[in-house]
Amino acid sequence: MGRYALQRLLGVIPLLFVVSVLVFMFIHLIPGDPARLVAGKDATLEEINGIREQLGLNDPLWRQYIDYMGNLFKGDLGNSIRSGLPVSEMLASRFMPTIWLTIFSMVWAVIIGVLIGIISAVKRNKWPDHVGMITAISGISVPGFWLGLVLIQVFSVQLGWFPTGGVDSWSSYVLPSLTLGAGIMSMLARFSRTSMLESMREDYIRTGRAKGLHEFVVVGRHALRNSLIQVVTVAGLQFGFLLGGSVMVETVFSIPGLGRLLVDSIAFRDYTVIQAELLLFATEFILINLVVDLLYGVLNPKIRFDSN
Amino acid sequence: MKFKGKAWSMLMLLVIVAVVAAGCGSGNNNGGANAGTDGKGTKPAAGSKNGNNVVVGLNANFITLDPHNAGDTNSISGARSMYEGLMGFDENMSLKPVLAESYSISDDGLVYTIKLKQGVKFHDGTDFNSEAVKINIARIQDEKNNLRMRKSFAKVATVETPDANTVVITLSEPYNAFLNKLAMGLMISPAALEKYGEKIGQNPVGTGPFKFKEWVEGDRLVVEKNADYWQAGLPKVDSVTFKPVPENGSRTAMLKTGEADFIYPMPTEQVNLLETDKNIVIDKTDSTIVRYVTLNTMKKPFDDVKVRQAINYAIDKDAFIKVVKSGLGSALDSSMSSKTQYYSKQEGYGYDLEKAKQLLKEAGYPEGFSAEIWGENDSETMKGMQFLAQQLALAGIKLDVKSMEGATLSDQINSAKTPEEAKIQMWFVSWSPSSGDADGATRGLFSSEMFPPAGSNTAYYKNDNVDKWIAEANKSIDANNAKSIYADIQKQIWNDAPWAFLGVDQVISGKRSYLEGVKVYPDGSVNVREAEVKQ
């Protein structure tokens, strides 16, 4: 397994290279001139040209790419076109709020989602199932934007329990995590229910019950473990998406995260920031996929990793 | 088995209670939330939650704190809390001396002799003096630095410092707006410039009422009281924290809970709701921001002045303010706002559909025509364009509304190298002169040297008199003379109608009732110099 992991990790490098070329090409293909946007609408042509020259935007594209990659290998992500701040510093300060928000959202969404899924499967077509599935469908259907604003209205404005936004304390993360996790919790509840129902029909469950195993053991140990593979796949994908930052939740709750940074950067064609963020997301996704693959083996020992 | 069944159900109940509690809570309390301005529940008391510290919620991030390179209004607000210029603006955008004690201008308009305030120190303890002014202007003018402020100081030929408290600035040619430009050139400590170099944007050191404490990009800018401020009695608060809160609803919620003491902009749709709250005060003031539609005067059918005038008659400006701006604004009655220097009110273009049709007939378009209108893709702009399409349809003009993302739109406009290449017909847009001067509200928009991509004359308006007058007004030494030239310019532009003149925005802010002294200036910058918390 160690060797397999190492091989996969090495495979990341060519993948990132391809991603870097694609990202570079696409962001230069979209219309819009960063120099003009940075200079502002009352700028003179001379000013705009000065900025373009300073940023190296007059060089041929291949040249710009080589310069960029050269700096990247030296660990230099460059400076933001818009603010002049070092991109590495910007990403570092934006990364932590996004990470915390992702972790908090995922933790409660996975625990509650899987629990609802199990109970719904066990009590299929009885009231706990109906309640569970109504909760899940509501969670998926409610627009996050609306949910966020309602939570602020109730828990911040009316009750005064939590701040309306920001990242000043741990309590700031409660409402955004609830908002961000609601959809994922619901999705996981539905997935784990379906997958549990499938497992519960398997022969080994009947055998377990026939052996006289306690129902909690049958469900918790045998059925659940086998149905977790699907859950892990879905949760892994969602985790990857969340690490990209949620523009919606970050905007509603004024969280200085990666999602808002990306949208602001795209609006200003801040090439250096967009490139760095997209490379970061690609790396995160690849790593999470690897972790998910490795988890398959932990959950189901029948899955083997063949390094050849 | 029966017991087990119950156990599962109990577990489900627990889970559901944990998750749905929030949902139920919202269902029960939401009605109260909307009407919740009556002091029920645990709403904050009238006093400040933040003590003698003021929290200001703004709608966007700060980009830079380098005052010589700041272009966006929020960065300028942040910079002005820590920095000051020789001149400054009051709340009506009128000029007043700040770090200058007095000034005199030579009869030929070329030499500005400025006496500096004495005893002023930068936050790092170094003296503010004539040498500091000289170094700052040199930094702005240095081509290598490529700073935004450079064009404002392009006409400065020499800066002399006969003594520590006197600066003599000589211009290469008279420049009527120079005092306004001096107000934008804020003074940075030369020692800090030396120390931080390019990083001065992250380490501001000025002479202002507040000192830099910390800036967490995207999250907050904190400035604290400058105990050695030159003006006795100021500042009256210990610190000011600026927080970017992009979502309108969240920014309003921060004001309601008292987490923010002041917010700008106040979302127009919330104004009526919050006006009934006794803990909240809403301030509205006319801005320098004008809204209009440029009409490409070199393209058919807009090359006919009658068509352009017809469009101006066919739009009900009061209805525009009501529908698009929620009633918060006023009709635009010149090419600039009443808060801009040398504004001169114009008459005419009241809503008159019959006259519009008559003019179109005279111009040879009795059945009207079709045209494209461009604009950005934010909801207010789209609403504005839909409104215009509806209004002009009554006069027979069919508008095809094209909304585009900002940078793409800018590319569409500026990729045309000559007026012939230009595809633009109509553009729904706004403008605000950054230093409140008439030149900034005129030259870039109406001078024939300023066709895109060189400038923002997207109407491709060319009038030889206006061109000549703009140059004359710029070189005019006497303020009354400049005023009368700008009156002529505005009259001519009004009659030529290169724009559909629409409205002037109001700047609307909200604050807790205990807060005094924080003001939004007509250019949209927030001024905290005199902030005071009355407990």
Describe this structure in words.
Chain A is mainly α and 308 residues long. Chain A has 2 domains: 72 residues, no CATH class; 212 residues, MetI-like fold, CATH 1.10.3720.10. Helix content of chain A is 76%, strand content 0%. Chain A is flat, with a radius of gyration of 24 Å. The N and C termini of chain A lie close together (12 Å). In chain B, the strands form 5 sheets. In chain B, strands 1, 8, 9, 10, 11, 12, 13, 14, 15, 16 and 17 form an 11-stranded mixed β-sheet that branches. Helix content of chain B is 32%, strand content 22%. In chain B, strand 19 and strand 20 form a beta hairpin. Chain B has 3 domains: 122 residues, D-Maltodextrin-Binding Protein, domain 2 (3-Layer(aba) Sandwich), CATH 3.40.190; 119 residues, Dipeptide-binding Protein, Domain 1 (Dipeptide-binding Protein, domain 1, Alpha-Beta Complex), CATH 3.90.76.10; 221 residues, Roll (Dipeptide-binding Protein, domain 3). Chain B starts with a helix and ends with a strand. In chain B, helix 8 packs antiparallel against helix 10. Chain B is an alpha+beta fold and 535 residues long. About 5% of the residues of chain B have low confidence. The interface between A and B is large, with 74 and 74 residues.
